[in-house]
Design brief:
The structure holds two protein chains of two kinds. By secondary structure, chain A is mainly beta. Chain A is about 0% helix and about 50% strand. Chain A has no helices and twelve strands. In chain A, the strands form three sheets. In chain A, strands 2, 5, 6, 10, 11 and 12 form a six-stranded mixed beta sheet that branches. Chain A has a four-stranded antiparallel beta sheet with strand order 3-9-8-7, with no helix packed on it. Chain B is mainly beta. In chain B, strands 2, 4, 5, 6, 9, 10 and 11 form a seven-stranded mixed beta sheet that branches. Chain B contains no helices and eleven strands. Classes of the chains: A mainly beta, B mainly beta. At the A-B interface, β11 of A face β4, β5, β9 and β10 of B.
Amino acid sequence: AQTVTQSQPEMSVQEAETVTLSCTYDTSENNYYLFWYKQPPSRQMILVIRQEAYKQQNATENRFSVNFQKAAKSFSLKISDSQLGDTAMYFCASDFNAGGTSYGKLTFGQGTILTVHP
Amino acid sequence: SAVISQKPSRDICQRGTSLTIQCQVDSQVTMMFWYRQQPGQSLTLIATANQGSEATYESGFVIDKFPISRPNLTFSTLTVSNMSPEDSSIYLCSVLTGTGRPEQYFGPGTRLTVT
C-alpha cells in the first residue's frame, strides 16, 4: 500500500525561529509528486510547496523549503522566520499516480498542528 | 488559478436524510474530486467526478451512498445519502487545472453534522 506518514501530531515554534516538519512515505513508484498543504482554522487548504520526484533539487518557496530524500522516502518541510500566520495544520501529501504528471488523486498524511508563539 | 465555491458551507442534518453539496469553479477544469475529512483526521479521496460519465470511486466508497454528478466542466455535486452520525465530516471539492505543470486547488469545504 502507498502511504504517507507524519509522526509529529503537534509542533510549536517561537516567532522568527525555524521549524522543520517531518514526513515519510512508502511507494514502489518512481515518478510521483509530493506536496505540503496548510489548513488554517478557516479550513481552506492552501498549497505551500510541491516537489516532483524526478527532480533532485529541493523546492523552495520564499520562507518554505523542503528536504527531499528520495532513497530514504523522506520529505520534510522547513519554515524559516516563522510568523503568527503560519499557525495551522500542515499536511504532507503525495500523488503516487503521477507517472510524470500530477493527476490529482492525493494521499494525505495525518497532519501536524503547528503553533507559532509570539 | 481556480476559485472554488461550495454550498452549503455547513449544515446540520438528521440521520436517515440526504444532503447534496454543490461545487462551482470559476473556470473549466479537467479533473474534479471529492474528499472527506473526518473530525480531527486527514483527508481521504472519495471519488473522481467525471464529466458526462459515472464517477470513479475509491475503495470503501460506493455510488449508492455518495452519488456524484458532473454535468459540465465547472460544476459538480456530491450527495451524502441516508446519513448517519459517522458521516459527520468536512467534505471538500478539489480541482486540477492547467497542463504541463498542473495545479490542484481545494474548495472551502462543507462542514456536515449528522444528529
